[in-house]
Amino acid sequence: MRRGSGGGAGLDISNKSAKPRLRSAVVDDLSAIAELEARELAPLAYPYFVLRQLFDVHGSRWIVADHGGVLCGYALLAVGPDRKAWLIGMAVSTHHQGRGLGRSLLERALTECRIGDVVSVSITVHPSNTHAISLYKESGFTWVGYDPEYFGAGEPRQLRVKQITADTRWPVDPNDRRWSKGEHLPPGE
Ligand SMILES: CC(C)(COP(=O)(O)OP(=O)(O)OC[C@H]1O[C@@H](n2cnc3c(N)ncnc32)[C@H](O)[C@@H]1OP(=O)(O)O)[C@@H](O)C(=O)NCCC(=O)NCCS
């Protein structure tokens, strides 16, 4: 899973024991992101080409964790014209999980949002993904919606949102065309 030699200028590949450092993603990270996606999120992983297209639009806000030249985590942010952001991808490689890296990536993404005057950040998560849900809850993402077939037949999602700037509007409009069926009200978490 080593990245190509073109990206990550200035990496210290001799110091593999150092903590991963967070930095902005570059295009040469995409194949490693695709590999990590496939390992951690199959069968729902983004293929390389989708990442490549998303990167063209949103990549300036993507953050990776770099461990001596090896990509070991990422947080992919997309901000819409309404200043509402989505965390459209996040993963930490198995070897690095459980050491605070996922939380650091998420905090860095939230800092990007604050700097960018973002109103809210939304996250789609499968209800069975208890580790991720625990992290999101602890970071202030509240349950605002559920779609029973978001990932396909019988594959639901939870939608969680964290407000960044003061905004009294409810973040999910039940008449939003992106909602097809399912519950839209929070369970009182
Ligand atoms: C979700 C994920 C990114 C978390 O990354 P991580 O580096 O392991 O997380 P951290 O070590 O920063 O832990 C942050 C919190 O996550 C939760 N968490 C992480 N590992 C956990 C575990 N084994 N059991 C329960 N909760 C866990 C906890 O709430 C933890 O907070 P705590 O340490 O205060 O208890 C990582 O598990 C992952 O890549 N999973 C596969 C891909 C994925 O599901 N991505 C999210 C898609 S929505």
UniProtKB/TrEMBL annotation:
One Pfam family this sequence matches: Acetyltransf_1
Domain of life: Bacteria
Keywords of this entry: Acyltransferase, Transferase
Start and end residues of each N-acetyltransferase domain: 20-162
Molecular-function annotations in GO: acyltransferase activity, transferring groups other than amino-acyl groups
Position of the signal peptide: none
SUPFAM superfamilies the record matches: Acyl-CoA N-acyltransferases (Nat)
Gene3D superfamilies cross-referenced by the UniProt entry: 3.40.630.30
PANTHER family given in the database record: ACETYLTRANSFERASE, N-ACETYLTRANSFERASE DOMAIN-CONTAINING PROTEIN
Protein name (database record): Ribosomal-protein-alanine N-acetyltransferase
Species in which this protein is naturally found: Nocardia alba
